[in-house]
Amino acid sequence: MSAKRRRIGDSTTTIAVEERPTNTQTQVKTKPQVKEEKPADPYAEFYDENGEFLWEKYESTCPTQNRKPNPHVKTQDGDVVFSREPYAQELYDKMKQYSQPIKPKVYEGEIHEGVIYGIDHNYITVDIGYRELVYVNFNKESEEVKQSSVGDETAVLITDTKSTLAGTITGGIKHKTFTDLRNGIEEGRTAWIGLVKNMIDKGGYVVRVQGIDCFMPGSLAGINKLSDFGSIVGEEIYVVPVSFSADRGTIVVSHRKYLQALIPSEIEKLKQTIEEEKEGNVTGTAKYGVFVEFNKCLTGMIHNNDLDEATLAKFKARDIKPGDPIKFKVKDIISNNKITLTQKDVVEINPWINITKRYAIPSVVEAVVKSRKDYGLFINIEDGVTGLLHISEIGEETMSVFNPGDKITVQITRIDEATMKVFLKMPQ
After folding, report:
1. CATH code at 273-349
2. How far is residue 225's CA from residue 117's CA, in Å, rounded to a whole number?
3. What does the pLDDT look like over 79-90, one tens digit per residue?
4. Which of 14, 16, 49, 213 is deepest in the core (most CB within 10 A)?
5. What DSSP assignment string belongs to 353-373?
6. Is the CA virtual torsion 226, 229, 230, 235 positive or negative?
7. Is the pLDDT at 17 greater than 50, yes or no?
8. How many Å apart are CA 27 and CA 30, to the nearest integer?
9. Does the domain at residues 355-425 carry the CATH identifier 2.40.50.140?
10. Which residues on neighbouring strands pair with residue 126, listed in sequence order?
11. Mean pLDDT computed over 222-239
């Protein structure tokens, strides 16, 4: 069922009560009231059984000179009024008032949007904006439909129009879902919740989406090939419609496309927790390393040189298999689709990771002179991290005192992670 919309169906009727005088001495006799008869509607013969005014029938009785558009009648929707009777405007307004809210003829097999008007043990009634409510057999509907409430928006399939207007909500939802899924193929942005019912022999799955059985190939069940194809049976997953199979007569859906759409946001989250240890599952191995899937949609690789001793021993023994759990840290994020991982200390591998957390601005540190140039001193903050102490910050005379290998106390003023540069000055 879609989002709820409440229907206000109750109304209050005000009844006027005639009060009789209590003081009998002051009662005054009045003349008996004569009931005024309402004059007959002179235009009654020009209305059909639905209350719609038959303009053609009416105009056929008018004189010939009246067969010209009446410019004095204000119309809408391109209507033209020929009548020049004094009540033409009134009749036109009345016609529009009573004909617009009423849908044209309803036919079997049509899908209509409506609002649940009433529910009891026998029937669910649906208001589709027609002159009649649609009656739905409560006992023949799905359990989900039986949990509906008055005011819920729904779709209903018309099944009978001969006597009582009848329909089915379950069938209406299925037909509407199928149509929406097919219409969503080109857009490819709407994700649906589907239940993975079962596997099929040719390497795919039956995924039920709001009563519609869709087909999902095994290759579209995840970012990488699943190590255990039966692991997702019985689970609810998000899927995106991607094509229509004419041979099967079914909608083809993809869980992979949904996961791919999550990658950019997951990368941003990963940057915020890059120093934390993570856990994923092996998706495969190569001569140079191990491929790992983590955070549902991200894939990274651990090079042989970045494996810890225990994992490296299992790797050499070819004892690492798809689906095996593995712990690691993020070494570098090269792109959304290229992430390097390591089981070693990430700071030892790449000292620029989390450098701003280790050195707050401004920080005073004891470092070592790496080299001396005409324009300043290159200072080794730590292994792999070198900063420039410009001659304007230290002075030519003071700079000449220092030689490579000398210890020096400096203040870090700025760190540019993108260019891997550290800017220094002498502490105050």
Report:
1. 2.40.50.140
2. 48
3. 777 776 767 788
4. 213
5. TTHHHHSPSSEEEEEEEEEEE
6. positive
7. no
8. 9
9. yes
10. 116, 134
11. 88
Cβ–Cβ < 8 Å for 378, 369 = yes
Q: Which two tokens stand for residue 344?
A: 């070693």
- Residue 198 carries which DSSP code? E
pTM, two decimals, is 0.52
Say whether 24 sits in a helix, a strand or coil.
helix
Q: How much is the pLDDT for 349?
A: 55
Q: Which two tokens mark 324?
A: 């095996």
Measured over the CA atoms of residue 361, residue 363, residue 367 and residue 371, the dihedral's sign is: positive
CA 291 to chain centre: 31
The pairing of strands 204-209 and 250-254 is unpaired
pLDDT value, residue 281: 92
CA-based end-to-end distance of the chain: 69
Domains of the chain, by residue range, sit at 54-100, 111-174, 188-259, 273-349, 355-425
Going by C-alpha positions, the residue among 403, 422, 401 that lies closest to residue 411 is 422
DSSP 130-163: SSSPEEEEGGGS-HHHHT--TTBEEEEEEEE-SS
Give the list of residues 6+ apart from residue 337 with CB closer than 8 angstroms, or none: 263, 299
- Token match 């540019």: residue? 416
> Which residue, chain included where needed, has tokens 């799905």?
142
pLDDT at 135: 94
Q: Which is it for the CA torsion 82, 84, 89, 95, positive or negative?
A: negative
pLDDT digits (tens, 9 = 90+) for 330-351: 988 888 888 999 998 755 556 7
Residue 92 has pLDDT above 90, yes or no: no
Q: Name the least confident of 35-44, 187-196, 343-352.
A: 35-44
User: Domain spanning 188-259 has what CATH number?
Assistant: 2.40.50.140
- Nearest Cα residue to 214 out of 190, 230, 198: 198
Instruction: Please report the DSSP string for 190-253 in residue order.
Output: --EEEEEEEEETTTEEEEEETTEEEEEEGGGSSSS--SSGGGGTT-EEEEEEEEEETTTTEEEE
